[in-house]
Records
---
Amino acid sequence: MADSPVRTQRPLSPHLQIFTPYLTMVMSILHRITGGALYVGTLLLVVWLIGAASGPAGYARVQWFMGSIIGQLILFGYTWALIHHLIGGVRHLVWDVGLGFGPEARENMARLNIIGSIVLTILIWVVALIVR
Amino acid sequence: MSVFGKFSIQTPYKRVHGLGSAGAGTEHFWKQRVTAVALIPLTLVFVVVVILAAGKDYDAARRLLGNPFVALMMLLFVGAGVSHMRIGMQVIIEDYVHEDVPKIALLVLNTFFSIATGLACAFAILKLSFGV
């Protein structure tokens, strides 16, 4: 079927790289990228919980890694991905009930998503550093 | 009369199943939204738990994660999370991988990864809770 002449001669619709990036499109891509990152990031949760469950020595190793510069950078990225995907998910739920499709609403929600995720991520880290 | 109106071309057999051409219906679509809604409060609780655990020593972390309320919230977070991420990754795989063998292989790996990470987290949480 795939190489029948009728199929191959059909015009193709423009693909992603044809379009000039615009905000809602970038946010859509970011939603998928952060989702994929969180998928891999679940391993951090596994490492943390298994480390805690395995005893003081195991937990010390996990804490050493999470406290290192690389660990902190990964955790900061994970925090932003988590919050960004969370707010983006709420945006999708708003769309699911049929709201927020207007030209202004969708732009405002996209801006709120990116600004909110950055502000909340920094806030979480400030609180975490104060509490510890 | 069906919800599709009296001009539906679906056979009565198809209509009673209500699963559409893919044969799986809207189960994943709906499950993705239910888990998304559940994950809004659960993610916020998770963030608070991580903030409280950050930088604490082993005993404090173990007491926190072993607290029945915290453990239950973490179990719910992990359950909803791995279910949500498995569907999300399946969509990504189906969007970008079109050859049957790699696609099926990745879908199986996706299932393995989701169940393994979910079970690892759940096991660790329960072990901490029961204090063995």
---
Amino acid sequence: MTLYPDNLENTPVTNQIVVRCRKGDVRAYRELYEAYSKAMYNICLRMTGQQADAEDVLQEAFVQVFKNLDKLATDSSLTAWIKRIVVNHCLSYLRKKKVHFEEVGEGEYEEAEKVDESEHAMTVTAVKDAISQLPDGYRTVINLYLFEEYSHREIASLLGISESTVKTQYMRAKEKVRQLVKIKTREV
Amino acid sequence: MKLEDFIQQNRNAFEEEGPGPGVWAALEKELPVKQKARVISMMARHWWKAAILVALVANAGILLIFLQTKKEVAVVIPEMQEMEQFYTTRIEEKLDELKRIPAAELGLDSTTSKELELRNETYRMLEKELAGNPGNERIRSAMIRYYQMKLELLEKILDEHHKYNNDANNSDSTPLIRKNVI
């Protein structure tokens, strides 16, 4: 299942839009934006947690996308390329907010992995709320893994930390979500 | 259920609406190509308007220097009245043509428009000089120079205006026929 307009594969339509953009067709820029803005905005919203900040980051990212379309290799996935630009802009936004993606010890990772996942019923709202309440570092890791579908290795490279740290942070984040969802569903 | 599975199965429900219209509005202003094209188009359309005032001021300056020069004038002077008649008719024609163009489309400021009038300050100065020295060849030559410069400038303005309008609208508006006045 994907929410992106053309999966990760380029289609004749997306290729055509890129060609038209490169020629300076303003309408093509608009079409490109229309095709991707919703999915990319959702990434920004998940990563920043703030509507206004998400819009700012989205705008900055699209400026980069438009400026650098010439540099996109013909055999590269347009979706993956745009998504990477958006994610990088989100990460620099978080870094500006002084969010540190820190290394953790191996032992903690082992411990975190033992979490029991056979849990009660979850709701979308409860999961959403729980993720939004996570500290920025945890939220980033969980979003990149669960929603943006990057591997632990890719996340490690994006954040400049080790893969084992990503795994540990992910397990901790997931445990935190589980607890928050539990509280939330009990309240309801 | 595992969190991963739950999110995977309900992926669409996690999506929010798209961004507000303000994002595109801001982006539109920063489109790399459009901005470039707009600057070029602005330059193409307006460079000569900025040049007019410079030309008018320079012309007045040249005439002043011309008046003060003792050097013999190379311009052949026809009968004064005939010459005046010739130039003023053509200048008035061009000014009329210019006035028919909507001010907003032409985009000339008031200082420039005033300078373009037939009897501007430079003209009055020359007229005064000529009245004081009716037989002075240098003043008469300066007067001819004044007419020639004004006529050329007006033709240039109209030419540029028609050229731009033809390019922009791809229309068949009447091209200006340049008259060889010299």
